Amino acid sequence: MTLVSSYRDNRELLLNLALRELRSKYKRSFLGWAWSLVTPLATMTVYTIVFKLFLKASPPPGVRGLNVFSLWLMCGLLPWTFFSTALMGSIGSIVGNASLISKTFFDRRLLPAATVSAAVVTHFIEMGLLVVVLVGFGDWNVVLFLPMVILLVAITAAIALGTGLLLSALNVYFRDIEHFMSILLMVWFYLTPVIYPITSAKRYAKYIKVNPMTELTNCFRAVMYYGKFPTVVDLGYSAAFALVALALGWTVFNRLQAGFAEEL
Fold first, then answer.
1. In angstroms, what CA-CA distances link 228 with 58, 146, 149, 256?
2. What is the DSSP string of the chain?
3. What is the distance between the alpha carbons of residues 196 and 218, in angstroms, rounded to a whole number?
4. What is the pLDDT of residues 91-124, one digit of tens each?
5. DSSP one-letter string for 59-110
6. What is the per-residue pLDDT across 179-233, written as a single tens digit (0 to 9) for each?
7. Maximum pairwise Cα distance, the chain
């Protein structure tokens, strides 16, 4: 069964699992869904103070001369936060649902997909707010580029899902993977030009651009902040990496899932 047909045939269960993820995320929380906005805003404030005021980071002006560092930052920070949240959630999705797996028979591949799907919903809420703010600053081009933004979110989700399928399966047998990835993601974040313009790292730019999240960050900023289509190279490289990640993750997960119940 292919990836698309598997998720299509089990779409009702996938939806219910995703809703369960969303309901449990802010359960018994006073602010509830407001945390999906408070957290990135607090992060933006910290990075803006450090990189704009202290380190004097100055990215090129955006569309119509837009020169607001916090907005430039959020155009890259929100996609990264979505990717890292979806990836870490999917990595722990199999181990975290050990009791469900041992008691019920269902397609285990739905668990990482449900986690990523829930992260997509939260991400669209955050991106929707960012679009409104950008329009308020005069960046009406972002409305025209919304279909491209949705495509970029889909590519990001595909990378997170493919990598999540791979690592969630391995995490059942090697529990150190989840802990290792939390450290690796921290390093990965600083190797991605999210909080600094890539022009400030000219010496290492060719190495940083190997990172697929660098190209995705460039694409998000191109359509949302600079008001232009991303380059074919950036978009093609990101899409190709997503397909490879999905193929590899799907293959490894299928081969290892038979032993999940016994290992858990």
1. 20, 12, 12, 43
2. --HHHHHHHTHHHHHHHHHHHHHHHTTT-SSGGGHHHHHHHHHHHHHIIIIIIIS---PPP-GGG---HHHHHHHHHHHHHHHHHHHHHHHTHHHHTHHHHHH--S-TTHHHHHHHHHHHHHHHHHHHHHHHHHHHTT-THHHHTHHHHHHHHHHHHHHHHHHHHHHHHHHHH-THHHHHHHHHHHHHHHTTTTSS-GGGGGGGHHHHTTSHHHHHHHHHHHHHTS-SPPPHHHHHHHHHHHHHHHHHHHHHHHHHGGGHHHH-
3. 12
4. 998 888 888 787 777 788 888 999 999 999 989 9
5. PPP-GGG---HHHHHHHHHHHHHHHHHHHHHHHTHHHHTHHHHHH--S-TTH
6. 999 999 999 999 999 988 887 777 787 888 889 999 999 999 999 999 888 888 8
7. 59
**56's tokens:** 């004097």
Residue where the block lists tokens 């995705």: 216
Residue 115, token pair as written in the block = 């986690």
Which residue is associated with the tokens 């722990």? 92
